[in-house]
């Protein structure tokens, strides 16, 4: 009887040991799966996140289509530096077609940056590549400390030097936050040099009069974050005096709305650029018709 009891106890203990081993293996497998799952999923998730970051997900408005413009087969972002005082560091996109030739852009887009950012911000955000993929040449400039440029004329001359050195004729200028100290004097003094102006809550808008704003004919996109109750509200009030402006409010975004909501910012930007390009093509078409009639 005692022998049978010992065998019974041994069997029970063996059973529980096996259960513990199995339970331990299950727990170990669960931990390993938990640790490895992000790495397994990363390959399938990253492309979607990149597309979403670049503002290409969701229903694309018809205005974003570029069917008549050939798509580049290769886009390169290269860096350069212009000599001078101060030297100017920049990034630019180079697009190549299927024949290996550099493509002529639909428009050139010059991107400035805010106080805490650089030209690298636009590269990291995907904006430079996105613009190039839609047929635009993007040029992002690293601005010097605005305090070192004492006057509006100095800051204007710096931007003109950049444009002239690279042969940029009539760009669309994107200006967020601090860069308004550079862009707004250029807009006021040399608005004819700009094909368009994209103002993202720039500083300095209160420095100009209603009459000065009314004299500017440059098409302008005013973008601001709905949660930006300071510069966003102030710049909207002042820039709305420009005669040819469009306003885009990005809900759920703060001052750097292009960082908070890049998808919405990119869509608004592409629609604006598409409209400008369409107007440019229409203007060239009318000009050709006039020249043809004069020849007759």
TrEMBL record:
**Which sequence ranges are marked TM in the entry?**
20-40
Q: Where in the cell is it found?
A: Cytoplasm; Membrane
Q: Which GO terms describe its cellular component?
A: cytoplasm; membrane
In alphabetical order, the GO MF annotations are: hydrolase activity
Q: Which domain of life is it from?
A: Eukaryota
Q: SUPFAM superfamilies from the entry?
A: alpha/beta-Hydrolases (SSF53474)
Keyword terms of this UniProt record: Cytoplasm, Glycoprotein, Hydrolase, Membrane, Signal-anchor, Transmembrane, Transmembrane helix
Q: How does the protein's chain sit in the membrane according to the entry?
A: Single-pass type II membrane protein
Entry's family note: Belongs to the AB hydrolase superfamily. ABHD14 family.
Function noted in UniProt: Possible role in granule neuron development.
Q: Which PANTHER family match?
A: PROTEIN ABHD14A (PTHR46197:SF1), PROTEIN ABHD14B-LIKE (PTHR46197)
* UniProt protein name: Protein ABHD14A
């Amino acid at each position: 009887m005692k022998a049978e009891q010992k065998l019974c106890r041994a069997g029970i203990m063996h059973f529980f040991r096996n259960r513990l081993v199995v339970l331990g293996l299950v727990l170990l497998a669960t931990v390993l799966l938990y640790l490895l799952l992000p790495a397994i999923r990363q390959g399938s998730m990253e492309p979607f996140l990149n597309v979403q970051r670049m503002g290409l997900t969701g229903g694309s408005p018809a205005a974003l289509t570029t069917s008549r413009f050939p798509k580049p087969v290769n886009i390169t972002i290269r860096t350069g530096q212009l000599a001078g005082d101060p030297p100017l560091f920049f990034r630019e996109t180079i697009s190549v077609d299927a024949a290996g030739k550099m493509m002529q852009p639909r428009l050139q887009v010059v991107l400035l940056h805010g106080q805490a950012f650089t030209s690298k911000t636009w590269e990291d955000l995907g904006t430079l590549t996105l613009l190039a993929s839609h047929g635009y040449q993007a040029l992002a400039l690293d601005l010097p400390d605005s305090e070192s440029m004492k006057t509006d004329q100095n800051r204007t001359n710096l931007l003109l030097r950049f444009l002239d050195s690279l042969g940029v004729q009539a760009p669309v200028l994107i200006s967020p936050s601090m860069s308004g100290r550079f862009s707004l004097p250029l807009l006021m003094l040399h608005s004819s040099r700009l094909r368009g102006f994209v103002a993202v809550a720039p500083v300095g808008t209160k420095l100009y009069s209603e009459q000065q704003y009314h004299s500017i004919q440059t098409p302008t996109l005013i973008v601001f974050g709905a949660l930006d109750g300071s510069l966003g509200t102030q710049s909207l009030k002042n820039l709305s005096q420009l005669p040819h402006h469009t306003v885009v409010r990005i809900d759920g975004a703060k001052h750097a709305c292009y960082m908070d909501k890049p998808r919405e910012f990119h869509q608004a930007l592409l629609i604006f650029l598409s409209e400008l390009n369409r107007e440019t093509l229409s203007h060239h078409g009318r000009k050709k018709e006039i020249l043809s009639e004069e020849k007759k």
